[in-house]
Amino acid sequence: ARAQAMEIQESPDVEYADIGGIDEQIREVREAVEDPLENPEIFDAVGVDPPSGVLLHGPPGTGKTMLAKAVANESDATFIKMAGSELVRKFIGEGSRLVRDLFELAAEREPAVIFIDEIDAVAAKRTDSKTSGDAEVQRTMMQLLSEMDGFDERGEIRIMAATNRFDMLDEAILRPGRFDRLIEVPKPGVEGRERILEIHTEDMNVDDDVDLSAVAADLEDKSGADIASLATEAGMFAIRDDRTAVRRGDFEDALEKLEDADEVADRNVH
Ligand code: ATP
């Protein structure tokens, strides 16, 4: 059961080139994660410790998980992912046990990148949410902090986490020696959207009449994940119409469908 809570990949199939619109964030992650893994002697020579933990924060579907996978892949490190929600357990001591297992596993598989997604599930402010009042969740968080405190920054394990709810986080996890490198991963601007569209249509048979920069201009406020599903959906419209080439109209239909789906989702939330 324990192993099931974690996702382990020797070499995740994501590269930096697959990630569009967040070049600056890629650069920062490389500096904080890849450089210490690949050239620890530089940090020794200069006499500084690399950042302990890297926290990626921003809206859903902007590429945070991709970024963590890509840096593990490109540093030839094992990628070990744990969802924060998996650490929230019913039985006493079970969450902290999982945290210990996570760090033990990383030590066995080093070089390794630990990635804790939805870290807010175990690290919400004490005052603020119902779950954080839960003593068991508190204990799990304390275990995580103690693993990080007892950690050799110049070793072969790097720790990353992600959240969509940065404002909810307990400041204790942001202290020096813990998640002390914050990287915001925002929704893409128009140029980023075009780049992401290029990436997701690279293997698609797209008609010459399609101007991706015009499509990108219509995708205000959309995330990378939205753009990935838009491209797939546009392809589906072509297939339904018995065509092998994807046309401009297919992207327009796909966008309409995406916006209808968003509306339904919004209605269900409110
Ligand atoms: P969440 O906060 O919901 O976990 P996330 O930020 O971790 O989201 P990812 O899981 O990295 O998002 O992205 C989901 C999918 O969306 C990716 O598999 C990819 O297809 C697409 N995607 C997201 N962002 C980008 C991007 N910047 N460039 C290319 N594709 C992207």
TrEMBL record:
GO BP: proteasomal protein catabolic process; protein unfolding
Domain AAA+ ATPase: 50-189
Residue numbers binding ATP: 61-66, 200
One Gene Ontology CC term in the entry: cytoplasm
Location of the protein in the cell: Cytoplasm
Transferase in keyword set: no
Keywords assigned by UniProt, alphabetized: ATP-binding, Chaperone, Coiled coil, Cytoplasm, Nucleotide-binding, Proteasome
Molecular function (Gene Ontology), one example: ATP binding
Keyword set includes Transport: no
Notes on the domains: Consists of three main regions, an N-terminal coiled-coil domain that may assist in substrate recognition, an interdomain involved in PAN hexamerization, and a C-terminal ATPase domain of the AAA type.
Family: Belongs to the AAA ATPase family.
SUBUNIT field: Homohexamer. The hexameric complex has a two-ring architecture resembling a top hat that caps the 20S proteasome core at one or both ends. Upon ATP-binding, the C-terminus of PAN interacts with the alpha-rings of the proteasome core by binding to the intersubunit pockets.
Function according to Swiss-Prot or TrEMBL: ATPase which is responsible for recognizing, binding, unfolding and translocation of substrate proteins into the archaeal 20S proteasome core particle. Is essential for opening the gate of the 20S proteasome via an interaction with its C-terminus, thereby allowing substrate entry and access to the site of proteolysis. Thus, the C-termini of the proteasomal ATPase function like a 'key in a lock' to induce gate opening and therefore regulate proteolysis.
UniProt protein name: Proteasome-activating nucleotidase
Taxonomic source organism: Halopenitus salinus
Gene (name only): pan
Range within the parent protein: 135 to 404 of 407
